[in-house]
Amino acid sequence: MNIYRAMVRSWRFCRQAIRIFALALILGSASLFSAAPTAGSERVALLLRLNGAVSPASADYVKRSLELANERGVTLVVLQMDTPGGLDTSMREIIRAILASSVPVASFVAPSGARAASAGTYILYASHIAAMAPGTNLGAATPIALGGSGFDGDDDRDRKQQQPRNAPEAKAVNDAAAYLRGLAELRNRNADWAERAVRDAASLSSIAAQREKVIDFTATTVDDLLAQANGHTVRVGEADIRLDTTGLIVQNVEPDWRTRLLSVIADPNVALILMIIGIYGLIFEFLTPGAVIPGTVGGICLLLGLYALAMLPVSYAGVGLVVLAVALFVAEAHTPTFGVLGLGGAVALVLGATILFDTDVPDLEVSWPVLVGVGISGLAFSFIVARLAFTARRHAVVTGAEQMIGISGKVSDWTDTTGYIVAHGERWRAVSAERLTVGVDVTVIAREGLTLEVARKPRRDQRPLEGREKSA
Asked: What are the entry keywords (predicted)?
């Protein structure tokens, strides 16, 4: 009865707590929505910074920032760029987000000395406002052929247009040229130069870009950009909007923890290191079951490395070499060849890491120090396995049938040449070439099935006694 009353009181308390929590949640949501700004209510310009290669992390940062701008209904988004280019997939994600944005986007190549090469040129053309700081440049938008080195290089420098070497390169160049020309026509910019930037890898300085009507104007600072953008008419969706940028408050949008984590993981050097740690961790876990820590750390690192590989362009040949290296390491661990298979695995791992990422963007390549570290780790693994194999050969056998040879026992029951002995705390059937008595110490000299062959264990003083007899 007391238990029933306690249960009833507990249930009533839980119901009251649920009601209070629900009421607090409703009030909090109401205050949150009432504080949220309506579309077009904020006289704010969000400032985004895209520095370095265009990667999955930077694409996620720009996309989520544009979603925030659309939700807040800000007046303008300024995308400040300094990029050597990047991945085609990430570039197209950013461009799709810009084209779908209900808030105008002004791309700004700054500060002086910055560039918007390759993928940056496409993003600049897709933006509603294109501006550059003095001393900056854009262009060189030719797509790099996968596994190749660009176009067929002639020594004739007067040749105005380089020709693709094969059909796949021609398809990539034509697709990129049509894509950039389409963006230029959408924003009423110089479409002919856009095509030259793709086919001839042409580049322009900021002054030349303004003269060629590739950009709208040059600006020294973000405030200067806002001042010059005031009064410009841009097309956002199906409507033309006249920008009013007077008195806008500039707010910086810094990458959050998710973007920072993604930028670290998506670095090819970090991705490769995570994969190597994961592979070695799992191998050591299989070699020493129950260690837990190597397997746990290795599993987490391997999953993070595979996640990064899913975002980056990889070469199938590189993946194949890495898989071959893992197979050779496992074979070396289970059938030690004193380092031969391990050395082959180290070579395959270094070669696979060298060609694993199929991109020529400087910021998205595996650095030489990392490759050297990968090679040293492979050689160290081979050395450790070989050393363990040599050490194991010198140690006595401790498992299996061979482990019984040479152990000591004591006769517990004996008749003629057969009987039973106790060895290692177990009772074994035994045979001997000599007659034994109960309590005699014996040594196992052979084993056949479950029967041991034993011999009388010599006494410690037997050899010295024989020696004295011989000397006498």
From this structure: Membrane, Signal, Transmembrane, Transmembrane helix
Which CB contacts under 8 angstroms, 24+ apart, belong to 153-160?
A: 160/200
pLDDT in tens, 22-64: 555 454 444 433 333 333 457 899 999 999 889 889 999 999 9
CA distance 103 to 37: 15
Q: Please check whether residues 286 and 249 belong to one and the same domain.
A: no
Question: Tokens 């791992």 sit at which residue?
Answer: 349
H/E run at residue 280:
helix 268-287
Query: pLDDT tens-digit profile of 99-130?
Result: 999 999 999 999 999 999 999 999 999 999 99
d(CA 45, CA 128): 14
Handedness of CA 319, 321, 327, 329 (dihedral sign): negative
Global pTM exceeds 0.85: no
Tens-place pLDDT, residues 256-265 = 888 888 888 8
Helix axes 56-72, 257-265, angle to 10 degrees: 160
Query: Whose structure tokens read 């074979």?
Result: 331
User: Is 16 part of a structural domain of the chain?
Assistant: no
Q: Is 152 among the domain residues?
A: no
- Rounded distance between C-alpha atoms, residue 61 and residue 254, angstroms: 9
Domains of the chain: total:
3
Q: Are residues 390 and 421 in the same domain?
A: no
